[in-house]
Amino acid sequence: MDPVTRLRSAGAVWTLAAFTFREALRERLLRAMVGMIGIGWFFSLFLNELLLTDQEASRAAVLAFFFRLGSVFLVSILVSFAVARDLQNRGLDMMLAMPFPRGVVFLGKLGGFLLAALLLAGVCGVALLPLARPEPVLWWSLVLACELMIMTLLAQVVTMAMQQAPLALTLTAGFYLLARSMSAVLLIAGQTREANPDWSTQAIQWLLQGIAGALPGLDRFTVTGWLVQGGGGFQELGPILGETGIYLLLLAGIGLYDLYQREF
CA-to-CA distance for 107 and 105, rounded, in angstroms? Predict the structure, then answer.
């Protein structure tokens, strides 16, 4: 690919990303964010009336948990239905008909969705500032952004493969819940193996360890304790950034391979 074509492709990626981001905002993303933050603050204020001590710390923990789950499912719903709509109304076919490689369309759409995910992570961080110190909130927001980027790309890849938003959303939610709970599953399996040390429990333990190795350790992402007890920093952020980069490259490779192999 010559430099002029590369420059045109980069411009097309940026243009498509900006268009996708604007479409996400038009799809009531801002209203959904405001609604999520309002509901979270309502429950935190209700909790404030029930607690006698450590009110701000408890409210920060509840809000962080609610914002984390709400953000993940919000971006998953946004991406799944946006990609499915493009597939159904032949909008993706029109994009692929442009004189650019298919990867330009994939990366352009992904760029717009990632901008929406980063905006959501930033808004959630700002909403936590009245209850926690700025530095832990900054680290928490950065790790939340990493988690949202993984889920955004996963939702796009799964939806393009399944071509149905409900099915893709179900698979994405299942992946997220499994990745979040895998440490607890391994702990339970380890206790079971100690109580019944036979070959079947050992085989199950190995199988679960293999599954855990293939999944991102999302239980280590966005630690609520950082907001309550302090923490975070480059030492904790480095491994998370590395894991995020690996899974983004892996998922992008899967998505591009599927897109190039498909006939439209």
Answer: 6
